[in-house]
Specification:
Layout lengths: L14 H25 L11 E9 L3 E8 L5 E8 L7 H12 L8 E7 L2 E7 L4 E2 H7 L4 H20 L2 E2 L8 E3 L5 E3 L6 E2 L19 H4 L11
Antiparallel strand pairs: 1-2, 2-3, 3-5, 4-5, 6-8, 7-10, 8-9
Keywords: ATP-binding, Kinase, Nucleotide-binding, Transferase
EC number: 2.7.11.1
Protein name: non-specific serine/threonine protein kinase
Length: about 230
């Protein structure tokens, strides 16, 4: 005698399962919204149509940096590839792209273009062969003249940003890049903020530990002076 199959109604998900599903849906929605918003500030198309010979030269918690060559000119460029899923503060990507797109100065790293490639933001910028100041100070001792040269060029970049109502908020040796001809340029604009007559100060605790001004750590009002 065959056992009768027992028909049961589908099991309802538990409250915990519902919460997890809702959380995943919110995450997916916010990611899609963020990606759509980012799409509005980057260029359309695929940068690989004009770039080749990618070589990875660095890696961080949020992405990698490669050098590549432009097919049309042969010019070597740096490409910063940032995974949207790995960004703890995704709004910083907007800062990075918008600041580099809108503000140009001889002592600020030049961004050539930016794109969305899948779920990665690609920022194509000039390649500075000398690398970051961190590499220099880690392996050698700079004399006073060299220190003065680096400081002067950094201050020129900061003076320009401050004249535009922009404060950097993340000056560190990793953010200072050098070219082989002695040029010094600021990079890493994710933590930048706008100040104005109506909003002359900020209180946000942002930046890199060990490089923060006391006012920032203490959450006191601060302005452009914290980077000097």
């Amino acid at each position: 005698e065959h056992a009768k199959a027992e028909l049961r109604p589908p099991t309802k998900p538990s409250t915990g399962q519902n919460q997890n599903q809702n959380h995943l849906e919110q995450q997916r929605l916010s990611h899609e919204q963020f990606r759509a918003a980012l799409q509005m500030v980057v260029s359309p198309g695929d940068p690989r149509d004009n770039l080749e010979n990618f070589i990875k030269i660095g890696e961080g918690s949020t992405g990698i940096v490669c050098i590549a060559s432009e097919k049309s000119t042969g010019r070597q460029v740096a490409v910063k590839k940032m995974d949207l899923h790995k960004q703890q503060r995704r709004e910083l990507l907007f800062n990075e792209v918008v600041i580099m797109r809108d503000y140009h100065h001889p002592n600020i790293v030049e961004m050539f273009d930016s794109f969305l490639v899948g779920d990665e933001l690609w920022v194509v910028m000039e390649f500075l062969e000398g690398g970051a100041l961190t590499d220099i100070v880690t392996h050698s001792r700079m004399d006073e003249e060299q220190i003065a040269t680096v400081c002067k060029q950094c201050l020129k970049a900061l003076a320009f940003l401050h004249s535009q109502g922009v404060i950097h908020r993340d000056i560190k040796s990793d953010s200072i890049l050098l070219a082989n001809d002695g040029r010094v340029k600021l990079s890493d604009f994710g933590f930048c903020a706008q100040v104005s007559n109506d909003l002359p100060n900020r209180k946000s605790l942002v930046g890199t530990p060990y490089w923060m001004a006391p006012e920032v750590i203490s959450r006191l009002p601060y302005g452009p002076e914290v980077k000097i």
